[in-house]
Design goal:
Elements: H1 3-7, H2 10-16, H3 43-50, H4 65-78, E1 82-86, H5 89-100, E2 106-109, H6 115-128, E3 131-134, H7 140-145, E4 151-157, H8 169-178, E5 183-186, H9 191-194, E6 204-208, E7 222-226, H10 232-235, H11 239-242, H12 253-256, H13 261-274, H14 280-290, H15 293-312, E8 317-321, H16 331-337, E9 345-350, H17 353-363, E10 368-369, E11 379-381, H18 393-398, E12 405-409, H19 415-429
Parallel strand pairs: 2-3, 2-4, 4-5, 5-6, 10-11
Antiparallel strand pairs: 1-7, 6-7, 8-9, 9-12, 11-12
This protein binds pyridoxal-5'-phosphate.
Pyridoxal-5'-phosphate is lined by residues 88-90, 93, 114, 116-117, 157, 161, 186, 188-189, 208, 210-211, 220, 222, 373.
Keywords: Pyridoxal phosphate, Transferase
Cofactor: pyridoxal 5'-phosphate
Family: Belongs to the trans-sulfuration enzymes family.
Length: 430
């Protein structure tokens, strides 16, 4: 990235950051480099790249030019020092936890998280003894109360999947700083167009790019961003980042890469050792999606607000959880962190309970019944029996997902058509 692109504003960066016309051919779109290997100039260069004495492409599991363009673009949009693209959002969360911790360590986690993250955390606890300590509530004080001496990080989502709650990122970051812990924020539901968590004190940001970043529901992917803000050496105790790597000639990552030691540890361990790299094709489609991100997010937010207001006033609806409406819990956090609106994923409950919730979903015509979120198409799902089914009823209650709850992801269709479809489906619920 040149200094010029660094100074550009958000929509310009979404189109230009991290990619330039191809110097070999002049191609204006980012070329897709479908190659596993890259020919070395010399045996010395090959050895230098393998020992991380020099940077360069060697094998596409660890890095690839098309994937690198996506990494630079997401890093620029988040205001991060570096980013690593991976095969899915799920693997982004996995690599962050595995890079920071070893068996016996713990971390504080938000009680309301994406169901897949909760499932992963439970499995890592049971099989690898990486212990999540769930905060009792959503306030910074709840996170602080859950911290124990073996704690290595704090994890939350910027906007919570599925209830749309916007977290008090600066409050939670103040807790993290007081206890010398890195704050990890899953920014999938906001995207950097709505919230840039590093500006509010986060140290690491993760994304499922399968959602708003790619935008069209075609490709799975994930990104890990290193804010370069956390002092790992001072904090101590993060072996993989701070201790010499004997098989890399005693490499001490923070000495050679003082700006982005977390990103480097994550790439060496997460991609070279564990291996969930992103395909260049998926990186290309995601880059293409990001070019229109700011425009799409405006429409996602305005459509979601209109649908939420319609549902709130409908007699068949018990409640709507969309903090972008006046009088809702968490309204102040929306005004402070996400003034454009809290995204387009939210829940609502039907007075007729589970039967009505399921009848509503199957009565939709324009709106698709499927499990993705953050697409240009509007989607609906019954989370208690799908995304959140692995949780116990009490865990589901904490996550704000009851049998009567429907999750919507509002897309970019003409609003009158969306409301007409939702209205006819509510009529069928009776
Ligand atoms: C979807 C999602 C993930 C997992 O991402 P995949 O790309 O589906 O693996 C992680 N976090 C949040 C908040 C998500 O919505």
């Amino acid at each position: 990235m040149t200094d010029e692109t660094r100074q550009h504003r958000f929509a310009t960066k979404a189109i230009h950051a991290g990619a330039a016309p191809d110097p070999a051919t002049g191609a204006r779109a980012q070329p897709i480099y479908f190659t596993n290997g890259f020919v070395f100039e010399s045996t010395e260069q090959a050895a230098d790249i393998f020992a991380v004495r020099k940077t360069g492409f060697s094998y596409s599991r660890g890095s690839n030019p098309t994937v690198a363009a996506l990494e630079r673009r997401v890093a620029a949009l988040e205001g991060a020092k570096a980013a690593i693209a991976v095969a899915s959002g799920q693997s982004a969360v996995l690599l962050v936890l595995m890079t920071l911790m070893r068996s016996g360590d713990s971390y504080v986690a938000s009680p309301r998280l994406f169901g897949g993250s909760l499932g992963l955390m439970r499995r890592l606890d049971g099989r690898y003894d990486l212990k999540p300590r769930f905060a009792r509530g959503m306030e910074p004080a709840d996170f602080e109360a859950a911290i124990t001496p073996d704690c290595k990080a704090i994890v939350c989502e910027s906007i919570v999947n599925p209830c749309g709650f916007v977290m008090d990122l600066e409050g939670i970051s103040a807790v993290a700083k007081r206890h010398g812990l890195p704050l990890i924020v899953d920014n999938t539901l906001a995207s950097p167009a709505l919230i840039r968590p590093i500006e509010h004190g986060a140290d690491i940001v993760v994304h499922s790019t399968s959602k708003f970043l790619a935008g069209s529901g075609q490709v799975i992917g994930g990104v890990i961003c290193d804010g370069g803000t956390f002092d790992w050496v001072k904090a101590g105790g993060y072996d993989l980042i701070n201790q010499p790597w004997p098989d890399y000639d005693g490499l001490v990552i923070p000495e050679r890469f003082p700006e982005t030691p977390f990103a480097v540890a994550c790439r060496l361990f997460g991609l070279r050792d564990l291996g969930p790299g992103l395909s260049p094709m998926n990186a290309f489609l995601t880059l293409t999606g990001i070019e229109t991100l700011p425009l799409r997010m405006e429409r996602h937010c305005s459509n979601a607000k209109a649908v939420a207001a319609f549902l709130r006033d409908h007699p068949a609806v018990e409640w709507v959880s969309y903090p972008g409406l006046p009088g809702q819990t968490g309204e102040a956090n929306v005004a402070r962190y996400s003034p454009q609106g809290p995204g387009s994923i939210f829940t609502f409950a039907l007075k007729g309970g589970e039967t009505a919730a399921k009848k509503f979903i199957t009565s939709l015509d324009l709106v698709s019944h499927l499990v993705n979120i953050g697409e240009i198409k509007t989607l609906a799902i019954h989370p208690a029996t799908t995304t959140h089914r692995q949780l116990s009823p009490s865990e589901r209650a904490i996550a704000f997902v009851g049998p009567e709850t429907v999750r919507l992801s509002i897309g970019l269709e003409t609003i009158e058509d969306l409301i007409a479809d939702i209205s006819q489906a509510l009529d069928q619920v009776g």
